[in-house]
Each structure stands twice: as C-alpha cells, then as structure tokens.
Prior knowledge:
Family: Belongs to the LysR transcriptional regulatory family.
InterPro entries: LysR_HTH_N (IPR000847), LysR_subst-bd (IPR005119), WH-like_DNA-bd_sf (IPR036388), WH_DNA-bd_sf (IPR036390)
Number of helices: 9
Radius of gyration: 23 Å
Domain HTH lysR-type: 4-61
Protein name: LysR family transcriptional regulator
Largest sheet: 7 strands, mixed
Keywords: DNA-binding, Transcription, Transcription regulation
Structural class: alpha/beta
Order of helices and strands: HHHEEHEHEHEEEHEHEEEH
Amino acid sequence: MTEWDVKKLRILRTLRDRGTVTATAEALLMTPSAVSQQLTNLAKQLGVDLLEAQGRRVRLTDAAHLVLRHAEAVFAQLERAEAELTGYLRGEAGEVRVAAFSTAVPALVVPAVRLLRAGDRPGPDVRVREAEAAQAYELLTAGEVDLALSLAAHAPTARDPRFSLFPLLADPLDVALPAGHPLAGAPGLRLADLAADRWIFGGSGPWSEITTAACEAAGFVPEQAHSAAGWTAILALVEAGMGVALVPRMAARERREGVVMRVLEADRPRRHVVAALRHGAESGPAVARVLAALTETARSFS
C-alpha cells in the first residue's frame, strides 16, 4: 500500500497555495532545500512525479493536484479528530484563538465572550488577535488561529475544501455627513445625491473596495479627498467638514457631535461578515460554543 506522509502532504499543499519553494519555506519555517528534499521523498513514496520545471520555478503536476484533492479529506478528518480529542481532554473549556478585524472585536467578539462567561458552564478561554479581514485565511491555514471573522468579499469560494464558512450578519453601511452639510436633514437621502461630494476612505484594502463598489452601484465613482483607515480619523475628518464617508453600523457607535449618520434606505449598501474555520474543526466542543455565541451576538446586533 502507498505510504501517505501527512507532514509532506502539508508541505505540498503549502507550495500549491504559496506558489514558490522559497515562499513555502518561509511559511513553514524551513529551508528551501529541506522543502525540496521532503517533496522529492514524497514523490518517491507515492511513485508519481509531483513537480515539473517551469522556467526557474516549479509547478504542480496533474498527479500532485489529484493527491491534494484526496489529502484535503485527510486534513479535514484530522481536524475533526483533534477537535474531538481536545474536547475529551479539556471538556468545553479549552482555548479558542480568534482572529477578527478591528470593528468586529468590540461589536461581536467581546459581547460573545461576555455571553460565554455569563453561562452556567465554564466557557472556553478565548484568545483574540486583531487582523485584517483578508489575513484571516492565512492565519487559519498556518494554524495560528482556530476561528476567524472576515468579510465575505475576501472569503474563498464555498468549494474550497480547506475552510468551512458560516455567515453571521449583513452589516448596513450608513453615510456620515458633517452636521452642517446641506443634505444632513434631507428626506430619502440616496448615495447618488452625494456624487459631487469629496469622499474619505482608505487608499487600499477591503474598505476602499467596499466604498467604491457601493458608490459605483449607485452610478458614480467617488472622488477621494482624503485617505484614512481608522474610524476615529475618518469621523474626525467628516466632523471638520472635509468630506463624507460610508461607515459600517458596527463602527458607528463611535459617535461625534459634529457628525450626522444617515441611513440609506433606498440603496441599502451592506458588508457581509462571516466566521471561518478549518474544515472539520467545527465539531470541536470549545470552537462550537464560541461560534454559537458569535452567531447569537450577531443575531441580536442585527
């Protein structure tokens, strides 16, 4: 029977995800020569060629992709086994490492932790790591976190066998206007009414993409007057009359007297928040309890 070495299979999967031997070595804290040697040994064990030269780089063969399709089921089963073993050894009060983008920490993670602490049974020890929405899947793949909150716009497809995705909420986007703006009190405000205004949003990243996509759906390209990523800075610029901005309702709790928040009922722009786990890990008791608390928190929030 062919020998399947899980450690070497993980190296092959990382090479597929990272693209180069050097990037794979950096991700796994190995040397490039060690990566190459491990993959050579795996090819000998399986009796097939896994890599082929493509210029100065290498690419995975069709046989390698076939091997990885089956290996994903092995990885998921190992995640389930580890989750069940952790539940057996620690009960439901194990440690769960959670990565979340900045606004999700106070709006979802902290209330979920409070909910767990208020229960009759001891809750899991939740360790929080703030991370950009797009970074969540790198952290999950590397095993640095157990659960991640991200935005659906940055989620892999539902067919990606590495992850299980759980929609949590559709977070409405409101528009922040200076208190003295001519449309601050106008009825039935729409995004298109602000097409000629100066806009404030980040220079890159998910929030820039969400803002521009919402405005383009309303029929215009926003003129970016200022670039800022933090909500404190964005709302301060709006309060000073330097522009307008879309603000997720999860972040709008940081109120300023000189800022008027308007709900865009006609446009209804939203960003969708998801929880992501390594496939198979959802069967772990501790992770399942944290996911349930996040789901309940998200339901009450919306």
